[in-house]
């Protein structure tokens, strides 16, 4: 993951300024809660004309999410060995439940595979890994989470894009100021960030499992999934799984769990 540098050279001013060209400078990122309210005002000024007044009003009501920052700084499980990671995530239980869901929802998974070329196994592996098949979708305010990470200097550019996407989704009624999800702003059964909802959502709320599974298959297809090809490391479709999560241990876990579900 990228680490962002300061986004403007005039940090000491603490407000949006104009340089000789007349261009407004970017809102100042920060590493503590102290500058968050000022950053929101600066960001809102920059966003006028690109985001609606209603969505910016929703942004104004966000708060600095300490839960988000704590989660962002504490992703230690991605440093585990593959066996340790699989055990921590409960791989055997995911495989068992995944096989049962594949059988009980055979028509759904057959339809998804016909449309996107993605079999049930990797979809169920992602669903199980992300939210325990919808059981744990998070309870952090989504707009506050995304705004906090857009303000935070570590990955400001990446999450600024996510924030603009979230504001668009507010205008479309997909998100509201009360939407809650995971600590980094992911929502739904398979935990889509706002920009992924815009790019790969197939209609309807991702809090509906059918919508979420279709969107996930659409994501994988857009990232190079080829119908009928393998998806283990070194096989053609593993690149699509790599697009889902940057952590190699997570990628390999999805591939292994998916294969165990598909190979029952």
Automatic annotation (TrEMBL):
The keyword Repressor does not apply. SUPFAM superfamilies: Lysozyme-like. Residues 1-26 form the signal peptide. It holds the Pfam family SLT_2. Transmembrane segments: none annotated. GO terms for molecular function: peptidoglycan lytic transglycosylase activity. GO terms for biological process: peptidoglycan catabolic process. Residues 36-231 form the Transglycosylase SLT domain. Keywords: Signal. The keyword Signal applies. This is Murein transglycosylase. It comes from Methylobacterium oryzihabitans.
